[in-house]
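Listing S7. Sequence submitted for prediction.
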Amino acid sequence: MSDGQLGTAAGRGRSGQAGHTAPDETDSAHGAPRAGRGEWVGLAVLVLPCLLVSMDMSVLSFALPFLSADLEPDSSQLLWIMDVYGFLLAGLLITMGTLGDRIGRRRLLLIGAAAFGLSSILAAYSTSATMLILSRAVMGVAGATLAPSTLSLIRNIFHDPAQRRRAIAIWTAGFSGGALVGPLVGGLLLEAFWWGSVFLINVPFMVLLLALGRFLLPEFRPARSGPFDLASAALSTMAVLMVIYGVKEYAEGGLGPVAALYIVSGLAMGAAFVMRQRRLVEPLIDLGLFAHRAFGTAIAVSTVTMFAMVGFLFFTSQYLQLVLGMRPFTAALWNLPVVAVMPVGALAAASLVRRTGAGTVVAAGLAMIAAGFAVVTQVRPGSGLAVLLLGLGVMVIGISAVMALASDLVVGAAPPDRAGAASAISETGAELGGALGIALLGSVGTAVYRAELGESARSAGLPSGVIDMARETLPAAVKVADKLAAPLAEALRDSAFAAFAQGMQVAAIVSALLMAGMAVFAGALLRR
């Protein structure tokens, strides 16, 4: 199906396609049909599932104590309640993105919405930890159908490049904002309702998507497609799952045999997946996409950006709650200024790229992220919120600009019949980048924290046994300090907070240098 055919399909009315296109909007400077009011309403429908999918990654942070008291999970079950959703979401993105290209993107989106809503109800009314784990697993599978379908449908709805960039900027702000808003929404719901309400909030939005999606969203399905290769789907899923699980194990306990086994096994399955794609006539992923400079560069940019952003959130949440002593809900409230500036970068990038080119804007966004990290290097235990919020604000404007343009480059570089798979590759890279960021930046910060705390605590005359317990993590140091007499407790807290701030600064320096290097790399490769 050609772009012109897609534009015609997107303009149909109640036949199951997108809303009508205004007669005066059929031409653009690029010769592509322009979207009208119906298409922009369709975009609003597409942003809803993305907001909820990303929100569900973090919404449980407040509900854990309540559901733990009710369901009484053991430590292993508690970890799976938290992690199974994200694991399956990341592992199945490629499979579901390609499946949408084969059976129809709107069809897969609506199937996923129904499954997401039903599994949310099951999760809300779970009567055991096992039932909640299974419900969260189904939510992860359903979530993997929603994210790539929404981005690839934007490719079908918005054919004018300028409008598509603006639409993807709005989509990016919704997707990224959901993860930051999740803890706040969870806290508000738990003030008035029981822990299941953090899942039930998904249901009305999924019902709305099901009610409106068929009339406001176009369907896209290639005229013909080869068989869906189940072996490739299994290999890609297991490769991503094993690598992410191994990285998580590394982040929690270092590079032990279990972490190494999972990472190596995942990489081996990934290599087998690539070799299989080269042999297939109809591969799950067209590896030729990576030969396109814009596509490969955009994947690298989004992966590294998520590496730095997610990895650094490991420090900011602890700084707000432990060093500054905020309650979790108060700390979540301070995310609101950061969320508020997120659309600024994405929409500004969509406007600037028409005058300066993608390479310049992406490089400038990456440089802005580096500048934000440079500001954060000035954070000290006594510096309060101003420096941190300034650095995060600058950082988030750059991140939203970069991620919006990277997503646009990915879907723009891919042929229309591969947009779902291309979107899934981009989002899988971002998930892997986030997991690696937590593991590697967390390891850097932890190493600095332990070295600095050991030296300063010994200078303060603290007992070696106390130092050994406090060196594990900052929460462990705070817990130990709560049991000590006032002079020793104050000395331990001061040493621990200073050591943590030092580790945070080193992680920020590493991130700033990485993003500055990526700015040069992306600017050179995307200069045309």
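Caption to Listing S7: primary sequence and predicted structure tokens for the chain studied. Residues 1-29 have pLDDT under 50 and may be disordered. The first helix runs from residue 3 to 10.
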